[in-house]
């Protein structure tokens, strides 16, 4: 297995070097003129460094042989060869130190990594000399919709939380939901707790929680499981009692009653003033609240009308 | 149909004083009526998730609310002419509050259709109709300005309710928000309290003493003739004999058909042109903001000496302007140009809506306006419901938004041109008719003749001056009556 692996590695390297793709920022999946022995897909990313630092994010969903190639234009003084090495998550990878020759005014570092499981993801850096560095952050596919507002629901009510994956992204193998337990994430078991129900379709998953209590509030996590790892989305749930919206409602109710009473009392006092003056100078200003079910002040003006 | 002199006596419009408080009340009332169906759409996503409904099922809530609001026009007209505006607006406010509060407990989409859609729609319908009627009672010379100020309630309330709804949604979820919104809508009752009644209980000239629940859409469970007779008391079909009314109606139907679709699809069009989502939403806010100022401005303009007598021309100009904006929209491909389009759209939309009811009042006069507006709103129900789906259908077939704008712009421009030409004809015919008529103190079918001479308002103004002498004559009679008590 390992010998065919190394064979394949060397062949891929040769293919890449002969292609000479150097400066492109976008990746092209490497064509494999190799015998299709491996079940893993091939992929390649490359970057050119002009300054001291550069970072590129790579989203993955399934295991892949990732070829990373770095090109560096070099410093002021360009020695004919320098040492370069690779790091994973800041730690130098063993046996990765090589001597890089100066070709066409550029230094190149190329390495193939097999990314099979979640532990293979991380920050891969190629380092030229001691300082010049390009970071490739290999991570699981991120979920599109970032929800920043909490979902609000009420005690003894139910709530539905959803997570979606965008149309053009691959479909997860399965969905999981987790609740936060202190600092840990604990998976929700729908058979154990009857209040929780998970309905998952290909690109969407829904968690329905019935009969809410105040303890149910907090962070919930939906995990889209891919062959390479799990992509996690976050939903915050807020549970409030019914009294909370009731307070503003009652405040507004009181305000309305006060205003209506004030307006009608003002009107009544004006009508009384007008009738007290005993004149009917302005026919228009004499109010006739004929449909007014609030008071019997119509009597005064009615008397005058007749 | 003509008012007896005694009725006109108590009916001299105030044109100021408490009238401005009534305008405030109408502003609030109309604001709720037009902005609530749109502002509710902020809750739709949350409701959709909780009740597991599709987007189109949820969108029906707004459509039902708008449809009931317009379709209930005739019923509302009859109630207003019976009881006056104040009780009706207060009842409307109560109904809206009840609808929102009951909706907050809802657990199925049909329940929301009934509570928000039907009960809420009824409440809003009462609000709208009664507010328009009372403006026509309180104002004559300054009526265009009063109308403009009152109609400005719609964009103002929309601009206020939209962020408030967002805030409420984040704090209380959609249920609590609906509850609080119900409380807020109780402020319609305050608006109603401001609408001090002005006339003695008028003898209902259309004579509709019974409301046996016969809907204007004529569900003939009883004998056909009896039904027809009762129905005509709700919906006075003699209006269709009125040339000016028919012209207005046709022009309006065309306008409403094309008016709402661009609003619904503006964000989507902007996003398709490469604008990002937030900025696309901003376009509608810009339009609303411009609308807020254009409506009173148009009212002020329509009030001026030169325009007042020819306000129908201003209305048709506003429609043509609005339609032209839409026709030019497909040329606007960059964000600054779209902003310019939103500004001009807001201007055109505001101008039309500031004048839309003023023109009807102008044509029909104070006495016939309440029933006329009921008839107009129920007929406008159809283009309003059909317009956006038809436009959406065009987008689906052609895959391009420009045909939507062409259709809407084309229909609106045609409507505007139709109004313009037909109003010229109408004025001409009326002038000919008036030359053959003797000037009576209580004109029955006085329409809008040409020129500054015989405009209806001036007729009514002359009337009121004439009736002032009438009141002088009648006052001794009244005083005699007083003495007998």
UniProtKB/TrEMBL annotation, chain B:
It is found in: Basolateral cell membrane. Pfam families: MFS_1. It is a multi-pass membrane protein. The chain crosses the membrane at residues 58-80, 87-105, 111-132, 144-164, 176-195, 245-269, 281-301, 313-333, 339-360, 372-391, 403-422. Residues 19-427 form the Major facilitator superfamily (MFS) profile domain. It catalyses: 4-methyl-2-oxopentanoate(out) + H(+)(out) = 4-methyl-2-oxopentanoate(in) + H(+)(in); 3-methyl-2-oxobutanoate(out) + H(+)(out) = 3-methyl-2-oxobutanoate(in) + H(+)(in). GO terms for cellular component: basolateral plasma membrane. Residues 441-456 have a biased composition (Polar residues). Its main location: membrane. Residues 462-485 have a biased composition (Basic and acidic residues). It comes from the Eukaryota. Residues 200-221, 438-485 are annotated as: Disordered. InterPro entries: MCT, MFS, MFS_dom, MFS_trans_sf, Proton-linked_MCT. GO terms for molecular function: monocarboxylic acid transmembrane transporter activity; symporter activity. Keywords: Cell membrane, Membrane, Symport, Transmembrane, Transmembrane helix, Transport. Belongs to the major facilitator superfamily. Monocarboxylate porter (TC 2.A.1.13) family. This is Monocarboxylate transporter 2-like. It comes from Kryptolebias marmoratus. The lineage of its organism: Eukaryota, Metazoa, Chordata, Craniata, Vertebrata.
């Amino acid at each position: 297995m390992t010998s065919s692996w190394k064979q394949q590695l060397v062949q891929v390297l040769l293919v890449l070097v002969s292609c000479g793709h150097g400066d492109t920022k976008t990746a092209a999946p490497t064509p494999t003129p190799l015998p299709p022995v491996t079940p893993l897909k091939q992929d390649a990313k490359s970057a050119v460094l002009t300054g001291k630092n550069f970072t590129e994010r790579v989203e993955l969903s399934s295991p892949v042989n990732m070829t990373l190639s770095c090109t560096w234009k070099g410093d002021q003084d360009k020695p004919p060869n320098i040492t370069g090495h690779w790091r994973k998550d800041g730690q130098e990878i063993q046996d990765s130190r090589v001597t890089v020759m100066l070709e066409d005014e550029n230094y190149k570092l190329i390495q193939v990594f097999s990314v099979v499981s979640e532990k293979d993801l991380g920050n891969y850096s190629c380092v030229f000399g001691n300082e010049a560095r390009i970071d490739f952050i290999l991570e699981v596919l991120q979920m599109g919709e970032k929800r920043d507002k909490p979902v609000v629901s009420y005690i003894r009510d139910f709530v539905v939380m959803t997570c979606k994956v965008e149309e053009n992204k691959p479909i997860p193998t399965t969905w999981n939901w987790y609740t936060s337990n202190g600092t840990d994430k604990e998976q929700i078991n729908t058979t154990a707790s009857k209040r929780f129900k998970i309905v998952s379709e290909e690109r969407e998953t829904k968690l329905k929680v019935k009969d809410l209590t105040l303890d149910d509030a907090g962070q919930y996590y939906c995990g889209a499981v891919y062959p390479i790892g799990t992509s996690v989305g976050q939903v915050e749930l807020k549970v409030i009692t019914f009294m909370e919206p009731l307070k503003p409602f009652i405040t507004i109710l009181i305000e309305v009653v006060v205003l209506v009473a004030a307006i009608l009392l003002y009107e009544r006092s004006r009508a009384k003033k007008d009738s007290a003056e005993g004149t009917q100078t302005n026919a228009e200003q004499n109010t006739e609240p004929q449909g007014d079910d609030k008071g019997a002040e119509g009597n005064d003006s009615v008397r005058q009308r007749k | 149909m003509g008012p007896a002199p005694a009725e006109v006596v108590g009916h001299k419009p105030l044109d100021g004083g408490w009238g401005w408080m009534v305008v405030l009340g109408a502003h609030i009332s109309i604001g709720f009526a037009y902005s609530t169906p749109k502002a509710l759409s902020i809750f739709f996503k949350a409701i959709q998730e909780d009740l597991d409904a599709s987007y189109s099922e949820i969108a029906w809530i707004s459509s039902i609310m708008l449809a009931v609001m317009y379709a209930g026009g005739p019923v509302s007209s009859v109630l207003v002419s019976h009881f006056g505006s104040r009780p009706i607006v207060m009842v409307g406010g109560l109904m809206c509050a009840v609808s929102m509060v009951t909706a907050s407990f809802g657990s199925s989409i049909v329940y929301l259709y009934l509570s928000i859609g039907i009960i809420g729609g009824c409440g809003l319908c009462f609000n709208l109709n009664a507010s328009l009627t009372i403006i026509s009672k309180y104002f004559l010379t300054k009526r265009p300005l009063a109308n403009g100020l009152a109609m400005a309630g719609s964009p103002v309330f929309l601009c206020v309710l939209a962020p408030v709804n967002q805030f409420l949604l984040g704090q209380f979820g959609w249920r609590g928000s609906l509850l609080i919104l119900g409380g807020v809508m109780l402020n319609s009752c305050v608006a109603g309290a401001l609408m001090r009644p002005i006339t003695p209980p008028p003898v209902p000239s259309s004579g509709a003493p019974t409301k046996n629940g016969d809907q204007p859409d004529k569900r003939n469970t009883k004998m056909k003739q009896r039904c027809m007779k009762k129905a005509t008391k709700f919906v006075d079909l003699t209006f269709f004999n009125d040339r000016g009314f028919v012209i207005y109606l046709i022009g309006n139907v065309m306008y409403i058909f094309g008016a709402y679709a661009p609003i619904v699809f503006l964000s989507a069009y902007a996003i398709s042109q490469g604008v990002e989502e937030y900025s696309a939403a901003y376009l509608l806010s810009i339009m609303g903001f411009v609308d807020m100022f254009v409506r009173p401005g148009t009212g002020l303009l329509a009030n001026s000496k030169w325009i007042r007598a020819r306000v129908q021309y201003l209305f048709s100009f506003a429609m043509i302007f609005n339609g032209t904006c839409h026709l030019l929209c497909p040329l606007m491909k960059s964000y600054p140009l779209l902003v310019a389009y939103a500004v001009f759209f807001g201007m055109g939309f505001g101008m039309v809506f500031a004048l839309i009811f003023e023109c009807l009042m102008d044509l029909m006069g104070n006495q016939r306006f309440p029933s006329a507006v009921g008839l107009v709103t129920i007929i406008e129900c159809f283009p309003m419901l059909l317009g956006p789906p038809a436009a959406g259908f065009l987008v689906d077939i052609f895959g391009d938004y420009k045909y939507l704008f062409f259709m809407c712009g084309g229909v609106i421009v045609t409507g505007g041109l139709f109004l313009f030409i037909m109003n010229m004809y109408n004025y001409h015919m009326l002038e000919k008719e008036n030359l053959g008529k003797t000037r009576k103190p209580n004109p029955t079918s006085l329409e809008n003749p040409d020129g500054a001479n015989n405009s209806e308002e001036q007729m009514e103004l002359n009337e009121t001056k004439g009736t002032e002498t009438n009141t002088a004559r009648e006052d001794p009679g009244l005083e005699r009556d007083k003495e007998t008590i």
